[in-house]
Write a structure and sequence with these properties.
This protein is mainly alpha-helical. The protein folds into three domains: 151 residues, no CATH class; 109 residues, Cytochrome Bc1 Complex, Chain D, domain 2; 110 residues, Cytochrome c-like domain (Cytochrome Bc1 Complex, Chain D, domain 2). 41% of the residues lie in helices and 6% in strands. The strands form four sheets. A three-stranded antiparallel beta sheet has the order 1-2-3, with no helix packed on it. A two-stranded antiparallel ribbon has the order 4-5. The longest helix is centred in the first third of the chain and has 28 residues. The relative contact order is 0.09.
């Protein structure tokens, strides 16, 4: 009884602290987000406006999150897992009872710009309004016009399964006061129109920092410009740094190579797998060459930033038992496609020698690809991509660790060894 009473008192104290903090935080936050006026001049949902909205929806990859597997597109219900529990995406079709049918253009703008629902509730930042706040009102209205033309789908909201206190509006208010302020994209007058267009897409609708940045203990990243890499929450993939030549920086790539990667999923300099393959499949392959070129110009201009964390070790010695074991496994399972010297086959199988996806400090993606297979997206420019078969049932943890250690140590590669414990942990987390 005493322990139960203590827990009850502790819980009540936390609620009081959150409530007080929320009140102070809201006062500090500045404005009441509920008062967003309608446009002075109503914008008719012309075919051109709807078409523009459809394009922007692809740029924001809206359908990917707002569609459950096997469900109606844009009808929501997809679980977005976070360290705090699961958030389920909402129905954004124009159904009046369960979707956006009663939402005005200003209601929709409030959600994107302020992170606030039509009824005033604060939205969870799993919906990346911290990026979407940079989207212009004109683009927001075009998106709204497109969504209002979709076939209505009756799909009631699935209740979130967040843990307390993260499931409270008070906690959200505090979080917003600490990490969010409504804004808008401000063009850099020292840069070209093309650069600014690329920055607007990468920082806003593209919401690239939602994956390519490190998050703190409360799930916040630093800024839309923080693209220095980070683990994707609960997906067990690492989104590599876009500012480091050791990971996914493209400062030394040509613009056509970057555009090709976004357009087809493959280029002369690399290919996409995992979560980024989904982005290319559902989003970037549908963008214009002009917009992809603008994104490339912006990404090429990012100042180099050192990768967070300790530098990788030198790798296994060629005389070590683990290197020898890995070499035998490579010859048996990999050399037929990737070559005896890890040189790969142009246009089919990527080289492993000198491949920064192999030698990154984080081995998470390499473990994922060998465990579960790696598949580039099927795009209009590359409709039948080559794929990597899974070895999850072929190699045990020790064998897979030895193979990956060999890949990270052979042919001039120099990266830290992969341990059986790392593989076992990844295998276990994938099964959750």
């Amino acid at each position: 009884m005493k322990r139960a009473a203590y827990r009850a008192l502790a819980g009540a104290a936390i609620v009081l602290v959150l409530a007080a903090a929320a009140t102070l935080a809201w006062q500090r936050h500045g404005q009441d987000d509920s008062n967003v006026p309608e446009p002075l001049i109503a914008v008719a949902a012309s075919p051109a406006l709807v078409e523009r909205g459809a394009y922007l929806a692809r740029a924001g990859n809206c359908m990917a999150c707002h569609s459950a597997r096997g469900g109606v597109p844009y009808a929501g219900g997809r679980a977005i897992t976070t360290p705090f529990g699961a958030v389920f995406s909402s129905n954004i079709t124009p159904d009046r009872q369960t979707g956006l049918g009663n939402w005005s253009a200003s209601d929709f703008w409030r959600a994107l710009h302020h992170g606030q629902s039509r009824d005033g509730r604060l939205l969870y930042p799993a919906f990346p309004y911290t990026n979407y706040t940079e989207v212009s009102r004109a683009d927001s209205d075009a998106l709204h016009a497109f969504l209002m033309q979709l076939p209505p789908a009756v799909q009631p909201a699935t209740a979130h399964t967040l843990r307390w206190p993260f499931n409270t509006q008070a906690a959200l208010t505090v979080w917003r006061a600490l990490y969010f302020s409504p804004g808008g994209y401000e063009p850099d007058t020292q840069q070209t129109t093309e650069w600014n267009r690329g920055a607007y897409l990468v920082r806003g609708l593209g919401h690239c920092s939602a994956c390519h940045s490190t998050r703190n203990a409360l799930g916040a990243n630093n800024t839309p410009l923080d693209l220095a890499g980070g683990l994707i929450p609960m997906q067990n993939w690492y989104a590599p740094s876009l500012t480091s030549a050791l990971e996914a920086g493209v400062a030394d790539w040509s613009t056509p190579d970057i555009v090709a990667l976004f357009k087809t999923g493959v280029s002369a300099r690399g290919s996409v797998l995992g979560p980024m393959a989904e982005v290319v499949l559902h989003s970037t392959q549908h963008l214009s060459d002009a917009d992809l070129g603008a994104m490339a110009v912006f990404l090429k201009s990012l100042p180099p930033v050192a990768v967070r964390g300790a530098p990788a070790a030198a790798g296994a010695s060629a005389s070590s038992p683990v290197f020898s074991a890995g070499a035998k496994l490579y010859e048996k399972n990999c050399a037929q496609c990737h070559g005896e010297q890890g040189q790969g086959v142009p246009g089919a199988y990527p080289p492993l020698a000198g491949n920064r996806a192999v030698t990154m400090a984080s081995s998470a993606n390499l473990v994922q690809v060998v465990l579960n297979g790696g598949y580039a997206p099927a795009t209009a420019g590359n409709p039948r991509p080559y794929g990597m078969p899974p070895f999850v049932l072929v190699l045990n943890d020790s064998e897979l660790a030895a193979l990956l250690t060999y890949l990270r140590s052979a042919w001039g590669n120099r990266a830290a060894e992969v341990t059986p414990t790392e593989v076992q942990r990844m295998r276990s987390e994938n099964q959750r």
